[in-house]
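Hypothesis: this fold can be encoded by more than one sequence.
Test: take the structure tokens below, design a sequence, compare later.
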């Protein structure tokens, strides 16, 4: 009788060990798949980061020109103000009756 109990116990232990081994293999396979998925996502993020850095590098010359453009826009505003002052002066001289004097002055100063 001892032999029968021992053999059945051994068989039960073998079955338990085999079942646990299969579970561990399944868990390991799932973890490997998750690892590969995470690794792929990290690689994709690195590629995206490299693309963004490339775009920023290509835009850098334009960003460096921004202060120059702002200065030129400021100068353009000054010319607009000067033009507005000139137009206002011409219009006011029309209303004040001295247009002939202004036009004559402009014509005389334009001729060498």
């Amino acid at each position: 009788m001892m032999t029968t109990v021992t053999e059945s116990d051994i068989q039960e232990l073998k079955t338990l060990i085999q079942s646990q081994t299969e579970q561990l293999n399944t868990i390991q396979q799932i973890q490997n798949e998750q690892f590969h998925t995470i690794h792929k996502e990290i690689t994709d993020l690195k590629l995206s980061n490299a693309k963004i850095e490339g775009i920023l590098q290509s835009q850098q010359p334009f960003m460096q020109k921004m202060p120059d453009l702002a200065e030129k826009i400021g100068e353009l505003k000054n010319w607009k103000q000067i033009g507005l002052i000139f137009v206002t002066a011409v219009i006011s001289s029309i209303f004040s009756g001295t247009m002939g004097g202004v036009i004559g002055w402009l014509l005389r100063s334009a001729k060498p």
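Residues 68 and 74 are 10 Å apart (CA to CA). Residues 2-110 form one domain.
Hypothesis status: open.
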